[in-house]
Amino acid sequence: MADNETNEAVMISPSVPSPTNEEAPSLEKTEQFLLHQISVIEKRIKEIELAQSTASSPVPPNIQAKLYALRKIQLDIVEREVKFHLKAHDMEVQYQAEFAECHDKIARIVNGLDVPELTESNPAPNDAADQPTGVPEFWLTVLKSSFLEHMIQERDEPVLKQLQDIRVVLVSEPVPGFELLFSFAPNEYFANVVLSKKYFLRCAPNPDAPAKFNGFEIYSCEGCTIDWKDGHNLVEAPGSSFFDFFNPESMTNADYDADFNEAIMECDFQYGYHIKETIIPRAVFLFLKENINLGDENHFTCCCDRCVYIDSLEDLGAHPALDGDDDGDDEPASQDPCSTPNGEEAESESV
């Protein structure tokens, strides 16, 4: 009797179909996702347990008093560092005229206004009529020897060959900052003689994270309007252009992920800092391709460490930071927007 009931129960119980070949990948993906979530939860539990065990360990009152005094001294060190950086910036502003003398000499030679005398160690000159004036494509070569190489597209090169000088002007008032000035010879692309970009600095520790203070940081920037001539607007053409650099607002959008917008601006801050600290003061070395410490020769890590190289703003729609769907699969990141074929950091970029 019992055997009959068992057989009957087996017969009336609904059968569970085995997964088909089409369902298997989906089940495998779900299993991987659940395992990932479990590992995240386990890691968080361990962190909480560690925090609780640390908090439950009583610190003797005399040690607490010492630690309080030590932290107060540490904060005092940070405040003195603020004063030091502000005074150092003021001194740099006052001293920039000394450097300007050298940069004036470089500009005159590069643009053919001064011709150095040949010495015995120089090669014998050819017919003077066959010699170019100045140093052709000096600044284009400098830029392509720097971290900014990836920003330069083939269509940018004709106008960048007309670039005569790059300067930086430091200011202390009304707020600390610096302005980058790109001077161009008359050209068929735009009417501007100078393209400029301002960067604004602050030097104050975050009250919630004073340990992160590292001197000046760039917190904002302001580009300029390029007066493009008809049919020669490089930033309207499909794809990116070096001249997007002068319109930072165009690189962000209210529709984009906030973290992604912040990451893009952090990269822009880093570009400005690189021009100020390396490209301008080391221009001749870059042109000559002498050994300059530009960090890792094979890879330049973006300050935000999250973005990908963007060929055009239309490509942003495909960026994972703008896609709310996350299936848990970690795909390899594309090339960094700050990376170069040859190989500087910013909550905002520290200066």
Automatic annotation (TrEMBL):
Gene3D superfamilies, A to Z: Nucleosome assembly protein (3.30.1120.90)
Gene Ontology biological-process entries: nucleosome assembly
InterPro entries the record matches: NAP-like_sf, NAP_family
Acidic residues compositional bias, start-end: 323-333
Pfam family, any one: NAP
Region (Disordered): 1-27, 319-351
SUPFAM superfamilies named among the record's database cross-references: NAP-like
One Gene Ontology cellular component annotation held by this UniProt entry: nucleus
Entry similarity comment: Belongs to the nucleosome assembly protein (NAP) family.
Name used for this protein in its record: Nucleosome assembly protein 1-like 4
Organism name: Anopheles melas
Taxonomic placement: Eukaryota, Metazoa, Ecdysozoa, Arthropoda, Hexapoda
